[in-house]
Write a structure and sequence with these properties.
The chain is of the alpha/beta class and about 350 residues long. It is built from 12 helices and 12 strands. Helices cover about 40% and strands about 15% of the residues. The longest helix has 19 residues. It is globular and about 55 Å long. Strands 9-8-7-10-11-12 form a 6-stranded parallel sheet. A 4-stranded parallel sheet has the order 2-1-5-6, with helices on both faces. Helix 3 packs across helix 4 and helix 6 packs parallel to helix 7. The protein binds phosphoric acid mono(formamide)ester (CP). Phosphoric acid mono(formamide)ester binds next to helix 2.
Length: about 350
Amino acid sequence: MLTDSFRGRDLLTLLDWKKEEINQILDLALELKADRANGRYHDDILRAKTLFMLFYNQSLRTRNSFEAGMHQLGGHAHYLDPSKIYTPALEGKEVAYSTERVSDVARVLARMGEAIAIRCYGDPVDWEYGGANALLKEFAKWSDKPILNMEDDIYHPFQGLADILTVKEQYGTFKGIKFVMSWAYSPSAHKPRAVPQSAIIAATMMGCDTVLARPPEMALDPKIIAACRTNAEMNGSSFEITEDFMGAAEGAHVLYPKAWAAMPIFKPPVGEDSEEKALEIFNKYKDWKATREYMELGDKNAIYMHCLPADRAWEVTNEVMDNTDPASGWRSAIFDEAENRLHVQKAVMALTM
Ligand code: CP
């Protein structure tokens, strides 16, 4: 099943990969998942190989799924805290004997391991939209080993892969599946747009009828919106944007409500740097919350999805989060979705490393 065409490739965004390639990753992820359930781990695939993981931000799922995945495939995942090494920095942002230029860090780590995975968004780049993505691209420019994006400020491709694997498992198809990515209220304005942007990229790429529901102030990156329209056209599926939270849920198979930062807030080129103003905007939409009534608007077998961590009581009720019983009609698929991070990442690592 492993093919050489993936070897050495970076995964910074799903937009760099073809639909057929995504399908191959999903198929391999399902194969690895089934094998693990039967006690087969394939610990020969990445034997003695090293993944360096550089985390500028906190993580539960991403760190542990990459670490567990590398271990299961026979390799090692090495955790790096940027504040405990010479912090990798772009030219012009260097501090003597405190930072180290990305071009040097990338080439050093690429000599020692087989891939470098990076998470960076928000505070480490001063909430300058695109700043973290530029950092990852600089790593990719200098490393001759794959660079894997564990979430930057534009994309979270492995979350997008886990999301669509969860849809595939639930429905067996993407055609005719109404996939609703929606904004939801949170009292924290510090949330990047990478998850919703990658979810709509993945859903439109695979041919779901995709709906983006969001208040007017929470628009996503126009370039991502344009890419989603192109994806939908290529698949003969639909992509719509609405400001109607409850209306969007009607007949939906997938309901994925989560918070993200308001588009006009936080630094140029996005806009104003005012958390107070961001929260004022957020507070207008406290009723954008996943409740039983919301879920019941969807298909009778609708799934609730969230990348996690979710802000319980704000984004979603406990009842929706915890209704994981497949026999109950609509249900929460959040733990399948979290587990699927492991399987898609194993598939991508096996193919690229
Ligand atoms: N969904 C996700 O990326 O989770 P973590 O922030 O815990 O890694």
